[in-house]
Amino acid sequence: MKSDLVKPPDNPVEPSVALHFIPLSETFGAQVSGLDLSSDISDIVKSALNQALLDHQVLLFRQQDLNEDQQARVAEVFGPCRPLWQNQFYPSQNNRAHYLSNVDMEGRPIGRHPDPGSTHWHSDGSWSVNPSKATVLYGIRVPEGEGVTHFANMYQLYEDLDQPAKDRLRKLQAEHNYELARAARQKRLPWQWSRADLSVQSLLMHVTWWKSVIGRRFRDGAVFHPIVRPHPETGRPALYIGDHAWRVRGRFWPSGIKLMKEINSIRFNASARYDHKWQPGDLLVWDNRSVLHKVGTYNFLDQVRIMRRCVVES
Ligand SMILES: [Fe+2]
Known about the structure:
The protein is α+β, with helices and mostly antiparallel strands and 314 residues long.
């Protein structure tokens, strides 16, 4: 176990805090002990936690008891929180902390996982011009042994590539757009339509949808990020790919989508993976600029999974 004694150099009134870091996997992730996050967090500890996030990429705090405001305050240790939509089934009083729940307030199953797209590898907010820095996820009720959150170390993935692959990927950019990414995955783009899509009713639905999505894409402008993206703070190159990255820039769309799919299918070595099995009261903070994540399967009709999420701006 690595221990850091966090000492305030200029403030003799503030007590020292011993933060203990226990590795979560071979190459990244650390459990941090020695902190009750519902209490005030001093500036010196805030700075130590920000450094720890850069060093370890995923931080785990166990046995925390946090309400919405306390969680948002913890998230703000890492930066300002992005205002989030209110989940219609499980409303939040704080627009910086929202719920991802497969049951409503009365405990009735909603019949699905609340965000099906999150079952694919992604980086939160990569579809934005200024993608998110970090995500802070709190487990309120979690299915035993299921609904794991999987992480991939994107520094490691880049480092594991051979030199020709590194050279090739360094020249490429990806367009990130979650609507078009999901449409491509679900084969809803015009050149992916099957015979069943060619009925008048289906065609009308497809064309209406396509017009609105394409209208938004051209009105708001496309968002491109380099596929090998130097981390904005550490400068280390990381692969910046995942589900929102739907096509490679500068190619005819169908071939750009095909190439992006190949890049997104890169195999992850076991040493670049960490799978988090949740316990109630776990709080995870991860760096969206150096890890991808996705939620694992669970029986959303029989088991209850209630999480609360804050997203930290870049
Ligand atoms: Fe996510």
